[in-house]
Backbone:
């Protein structure tokens, strides 16, 4: 395409190319680019002797493109070796100006020249061998021939100055040494060849495609029709035609063939850091590569060092600028396309604005001719509607303002519900709910405070109705309390104490009048939303009434001194000094009055709940909250009554502990009835009085038990252990215990026996027992303890432990006075006889029979969790049985002692002497032994049961026969007369003991011992002492 056509079609490309020229001329390498673009380059003689290359593109006179600089002469002698046989160092060779004449330096022109696209990397340095054309300013020859330093003395180093170099020993390397390495890199090498082959195919296909596209555009072909060839010497160099003097003068409109750009990674990364600043010494030293640019040290002069450093910096700058120009060139087409689009849009916008102006002119004419009159009619209609709406609003405002005086009139007349209805209607009008247009009047300034005024009036109505509500309830309460019949109320309370199951429920059928009076006030309080506040006021007033009820019934002196600071002390002193009868009557009156007050409070609660449940507009949540609040009021009244009564009773804690059981049981039953009645009315458990009653019951039980412990201990110590008659009352106690029902000990159900005659025996389950005085006393105590359990149910566990303690005391004291012979000191007995032991065994037998009955009776009054404590009765019964066994052993031991005494007398008898005196039926020792044994049998047969008698006598007989047989075998008998005499004693022993009733006869071992006795003429050995046998 001709250049004139290109300039005509793209008039803006010239400005872009001028921008490029200006950008390239701005840099520090502008001298170098100007030199390459100047015509003197073509006329300058070629010092290398090589002809200048032929231009690839025809020169253009209009514009030139100094894009970059490349060596303008081809290096044909790159295969020639250097004369000195060595290559230049990379740092020097990379800084040379390829193909430039050396005459520039010979004339002393030492201006700094910028480097070309050659990089300092090894890739560009090793691409071609070093030649003489690479000599530049930084060559060694140039440095040594620097005219600026000719006057300075310079001496060449001698061989002495150069240190000798040691010969290095080079080992012989074999091919086998590389086998391990070759095996290691062989897979990678094969992958490299495979990838390289694939890459070559892809590159070839891409090159063909780009070539076809370039042929279509006619931009990649030279005027001679040949394809441009990229130089293969340096991969970072640009095409030759671009860097020639003719290509720099090429037409701006011609397309530059693709070229290789220097790698941007060759520029050190320090220049791209965001905090790059040469003022930083570390950055400055990095940029200068640690070179001595001042010349204070080092062999190189500062001029050559600075020149090398400037060449490097110039190269870095050129690399960055070329990349920037390349990016600008790549985006120039899209820029011009966007610019063309903007111009087209601008023209369309101008046309659109003209059309809009024309349409506005037409619309203005239409508005003047056709629309103006119609819009005026519509405007008047809208104004009419607005005036009508305003008129309605004014009427509503007048209606609202007229409501206030009407509300005042209704309040004055006491018509609270009409006033509330008018307040609600007025509030709905203000909110716009009851008018057709739904007009909200709350934003009208004249009615701005009217809503708050309505709230105040509603609040005033609520306060009035609250006053009426409290007046109705409190007046009814005062009337009921003051006009109640105290005697009847106290009688009912005592009846309830005797029959606690007859607690009556509340009947609302007789409260229609109170319901009719409470219903309007309650509904009004619901509508005014102050029912909760009213309940709080009702609660406070009710608490005051409860306190007044208790205070008014104090003793007279205490009531008169209510204003005294020592009121509590005076009241306590007066209550302690009161007789129990007076205190009990005062407490009955207080309980009866408080029960009536709490009953009325419960009635009020149920009536209010009934009224609230009947209101349809009330929410279920409100009903549940109200039910809880109202129930809390009844509970608070009951709890306060309990606390006040608890203080009164606590003042007499010491006196109540000393009361007789009957009075204390009456007091406890009345208090328990009061507590249960109040809990029935309030529906909850009250603890204000329970703690006080429990502590006083514990004190009473402790005193009750201590008194009986003292009585029992004293009576056992003074007991004479003589059999006593059993009155009918004590037999009745045992009979009730045998039934196992503790309720039979209640005074209200106890039946008096008609037979007052006393008996000699105590009958327990068909067995008869002789008893002594202390045994009868403990039977009476059993009755007292069971009555205590029956009347003080909460103390059943403590009373059980006290009863166990009483049983253990009885067992231990009986053991002390009988087995320990303590009765000889305390009761004045001369000795402990078999009779005493038998009566003690009988007393223990009574306890053994009654302990399981006591366990059964008390177990029925105890809770399940305390049932394991009843096992203590079993352990106590075992102790009694062990004690009884010890008494039986003691009886046997006594008879053994008597036998040992008589054996000594037997040993002193001379059996062969006829003159020896003897008794009527036997020798005296045998008659005495048999008489004592018969007497023991008589006593035991009278006082002990048959099985105990048989057991004891059997053991006594066995002991006698065994010891007597041994003694006979050791008795010396020399004649038949002596043997007959001994046989008479044994026969008498066997005959008399065999005649005893209810026992087994002794064995015939004694007779057999006599029959087997051998008569010896020689004197026998000395007999063994009898006590050793025993």
Residues:
């Amino acid at each position: 395409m001709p250049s004139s056509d290109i300039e005509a079609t793209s008039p803006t490309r010239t400005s872009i190319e001028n921008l490029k020229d200006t950008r390239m001329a701005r840099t520090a390498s502008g001298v170098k680019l100007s030199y390459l673009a100047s015509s003197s380059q073509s006329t300058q003689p070629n010092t290398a002797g090589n002809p200048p290359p032929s231009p690839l593109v025809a020169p253009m006179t209009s514009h030139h493109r100094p894009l970059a600089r490349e060596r303008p002469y081809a290096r044909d002698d790159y295969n020639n070796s250097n004369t000195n046989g060595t290559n230049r160092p990379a740092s020097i060779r990379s800084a040379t100006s390829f193909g430039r004449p050396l005459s520039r330096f010979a004339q002393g022109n030492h201006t700094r020249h910028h480097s070309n696209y050659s990089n300092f990397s090894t890739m560009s340095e090793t691409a071609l061998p070093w030649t003489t054309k690479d000599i530049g300013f930084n060559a060694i020859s140039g440095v040594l021939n620097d005219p600026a330093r000719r006057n300075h003395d310079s001496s060449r180093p001698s061989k002495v100055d150069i240190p000798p170099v040691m010969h290095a020993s080079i080992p012989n390397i074999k091919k086998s040494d590389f086998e391990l390495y070759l095996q290691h890199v062989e897979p990678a090498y094969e992958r490299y060849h495979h990838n390289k082959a694939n890459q070559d195919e892809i590159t070839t296909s891409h090159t063909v495609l780009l070539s076809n596209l370039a042929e279509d555009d006619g931009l990649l072909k030279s005027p001679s029709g040949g394809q441009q060839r990229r130089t293969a010497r340096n991969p970072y160099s640009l095409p030759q035609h671009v860097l020639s003097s003719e290509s720099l003068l090429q037409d701006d409109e011609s397309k530059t063939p693709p070229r290789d750009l220097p790698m941007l990674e060759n520029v050190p990364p320090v220049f791209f850091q965001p905090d790059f600043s040469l003022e930083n010494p570390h950055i400055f030293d990095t940029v200068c590569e640690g070179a001595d640019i001042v010349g204070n040290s080092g062999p190189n002069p500062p001029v050559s060092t600075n020149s090398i450093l400037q060449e490097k910096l110039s190269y870095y700058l050129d690399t960055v600028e070329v990349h920037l120009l390349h990016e600008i060139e790549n985006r120039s087409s899209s820029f011009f396309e966007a610019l063309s689009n903007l111009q087209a849009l601008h023209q369309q916008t101008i046309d659109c604005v003209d059309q809009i102006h024309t349409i506005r002119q037409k619309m203005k004419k239409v508005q003047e001719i056709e629309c103006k009159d119609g819009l005026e009619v519509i405007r008047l209609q809208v104004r009419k509607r607005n005036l009508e709406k305003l008129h309605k609003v004014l009427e509503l405002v007048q209606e609202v303002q007229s409501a206030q005086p009407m509300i005042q009139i209704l309040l004055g007349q006491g018509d609270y519900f009409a006033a509330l209805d008018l307040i609600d209607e007025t509030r709905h009008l203000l909110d716009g709910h009851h008018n057709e247009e739904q007009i909200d009047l709350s934003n009208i300034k004249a009615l701005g405070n009217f809503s708050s005024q309505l709230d105040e009036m509603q609040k005033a109505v609520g306060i009035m109705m609250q006053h009426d509500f409290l007046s109705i309830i409190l007046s009814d309460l005062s009337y009921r309390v003051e006009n109640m019949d105290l005697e009847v109320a106290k009688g009912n309370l005592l009846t309830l104490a005797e029959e606690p199951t007859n607690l009556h429920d509340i009947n609302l059928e007789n409260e229609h009048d109170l319901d009719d009076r409470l219903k309007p006030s309650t509904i009004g309080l619901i509508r005014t939303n102050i029912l909760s506040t009213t309940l709080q006021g009702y609660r406070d007033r009710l608490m005051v009434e409860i306190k007044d009820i208790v205070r008014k019934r104090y003793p007279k002196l205490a009531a008169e001194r209510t204003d005294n600071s020592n009121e509590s002390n005076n009241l306590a002193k007066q209550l302690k000094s009161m007789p129990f009868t007076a205190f009990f009557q005062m407490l009955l009156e207080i309980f009866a009055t408080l029960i009536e007050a709490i009953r009325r409070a419960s009635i009020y609660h149920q009536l209010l709940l009934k009224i609230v449940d009947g209101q349809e507009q009330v929410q279920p949540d409100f009903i549940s909250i109200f039910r809880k609040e109202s129930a809390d009021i009844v509970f608070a009244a009951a709890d306060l009554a309990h606390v006040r009564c608890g203080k009164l009773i606590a003042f007499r804690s010491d006196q109540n502990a000393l009361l007789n059981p009957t009075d204390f049981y009456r007091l406890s039953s009345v208090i328990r009835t009061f507590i249960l009645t109040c809990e029935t009315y309030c529906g909850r458990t009250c603890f204000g009085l329970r703690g006080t009653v429990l502590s006083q019951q514990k004190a009473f039980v402790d005193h009750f038990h201590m008194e009986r412990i003292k009585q029992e201990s004293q009576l056992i110590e003074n007991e004479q252990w003589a059999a006593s008659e059993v009155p009918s009352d004590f037999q009745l106690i045992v009979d009730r215990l045998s039934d196992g029902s503790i309720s039979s000990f209640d005074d209200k159900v106890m039946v008096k026996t008609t037979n007052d005659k006393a008996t000699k025996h105590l009958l327990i389950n068909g067995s008869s027992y002789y008893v002594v005085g202390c045994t009868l006393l403990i039977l009476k105590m059993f009755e007292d303890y069971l009555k205590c359990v029956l009347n003080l149910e909460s103390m059943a566990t403590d009373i059980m432990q006290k009863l166990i303690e009483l049983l253990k005391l009885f067992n231990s004291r009986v053991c002390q006075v009988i087995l320990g012979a303590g009765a000889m000191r305390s009761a004045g007995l001369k000795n402990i006889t078999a009779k005493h032991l038998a009566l003690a065994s009988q007393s223990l037998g009574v306890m053994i029979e009654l302990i399981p009955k006591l366990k059964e009776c008390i177990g029925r009054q105890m809770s399940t969790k305390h049932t394991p404590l009843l096992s203590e009765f079993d352990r106590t019964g075992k102790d009694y049985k062990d004690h009884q066994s010890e008494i039986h052993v003691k009886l046997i031991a006594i008879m053994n002692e008597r036998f040992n005494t008589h054996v000594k007398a037997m040993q002193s008898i001379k059996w062969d002497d006829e003159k020896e005196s003897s008794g009527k039926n036997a020798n005296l020792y045998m008659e005495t032994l048999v008489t004592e044994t018969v007497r023991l049998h008589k006593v035991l047969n009278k006082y002990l049961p048959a099985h105990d008698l048989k057991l004891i006598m059997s053991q006594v007989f066995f002991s006698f026969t065994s010891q007597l047989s041994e003694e006979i075998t050791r008795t010396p008998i020399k004649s038949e007369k002596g043997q007959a005499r001994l046989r008479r004693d044994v026969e008498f022993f066997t005959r008399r003991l065999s005649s005893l009733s209810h026992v087994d006869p002794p064995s015939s071992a004694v007779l057999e011992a006599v029959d087997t006795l051998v008569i010896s003429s020689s004197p026998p050995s000395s007999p063994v002492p009898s006590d050793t046998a025993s």
In short: The chain has a mean pLDDT of 75. DSSP finds 37 helices and two strands in the chain. The CA atoms of residues 84 and 913 lie 174 Å apart.
